[in-house]
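One such shown below:

_____
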Amino acid sequence: MKKLTRKLACVMMALMLLVGALTGCSTESDTQWYLHKSISLQEKYGTLPQEGTVGNLDYRILEKDAFSCYESEAGYYIDMLEEPDSPYFIVITLGSKAKDAVEIVDLGMDGTTLQIVIAHADATGDESDSKSSPCCVLQVNQMPGSIEIHDRNGRTYELIEK
């Protein structure tokens, strides 16, 4: 009886491994998160332009030193200047404990939802302020209906309530 149970267990494990191999168990390269080709600006242009139009929004990716981020948690928030017709700034931060740099690598409009893909990179250079958080900023001329932000590993970045 023990031999039969052991054989059945071996057969089940072999079947599970086979099914996993045939269905494409995820590997490191399979876990990358991308926008659908039909909405991806990176797909359309080969690389993401620093400024342009996505859907009905005019956008501009600001230089890394254009904004100082001091958020302790990872996520995003919306900022704007206190003047008429000010653009909106979507500030994406990794939080104060992060050591990585961050950049926007793709954008797309899915209906009224602005989708943003970010990527992490090892920080380079001197750290001038240990309180600052790695961040990147997207300037838009108007607010989209909603915003979804993901990193390449599929992590979702939520709105930070201020």
